[in-house]
Amino acid sequence: MSKAPLRSALLALMLCGWPWLSHAQAPAERLIAPVPPDYRPAGKVSAPGSIVEIFRPPGQTDDNWTNQLMVQTSRDRVKADPSDVLRGIEKTFAASCAEPAPATTAPGKVNGYATATTLFKCPRVTATGKPETSLVHAIAGNDHMYIVHQAMRRAHTPDVLKQMIRYLGTVTVCDDRASGHPCPAQKP
Q1: Beta-strand pair 145-152/20-21
Q2: What's the pLDDT tens digit per position in 132-175?
Q3: 97 domain-assigned
Q4: Which residues constitute the domain of residue 51?
Q5: In this model, does residue 15 exceed pLDDT 50?
Q6: What's the pLDDT score for residue 187?
Q7: 119 lies in a domain?
Q8: CB 142 within 8 A of CB 120
Q9: How many structural domains is the chain composed of?
């Protein structure tokens, strides 16, 4: 089976701390995204100004994954509107889907930062023949654009969608240099 769908998803993300993923420990802006306890690092893709980290349950590979979490930190898109970033990802997702479902982007705020969230549904990805559901959340920080992408190669159920949304409630961006974006207290 081809690695093309994964590469396409990573390319879409690029263009448009364990157990907590946090990209800075000194006073700075940082993404805090808890990695699910049953997920392990599965890869990292870097480009100038951007990095994507991939996490999956053990035993899942580029070719056989069923659940995946991708986290992107990008300096290149820092001034972009999160909704515009997700519309760009939607175009790539729709191009890889035999019959893409319409996607709705919901803008919001997390810890004082602008966000947008989109649910992408595809009954059959052209390259894999499998269904895929993705919930993608973009947060526009002052220093970086952060994109958290949860994907599963199956149709979603209401319970699974609730779990995905609940997970996004644990994702935040903070900046301990700025009072408007407080960081949570560090656990010892």
Answers
A1: unpaired
A2: 999 999 999 999 999 999 999 988 889 999 999 999 999 999 99
A3: yes
A4: 4-175
A5: no
A6: 62
A7: yes
A8: no
A9: 1
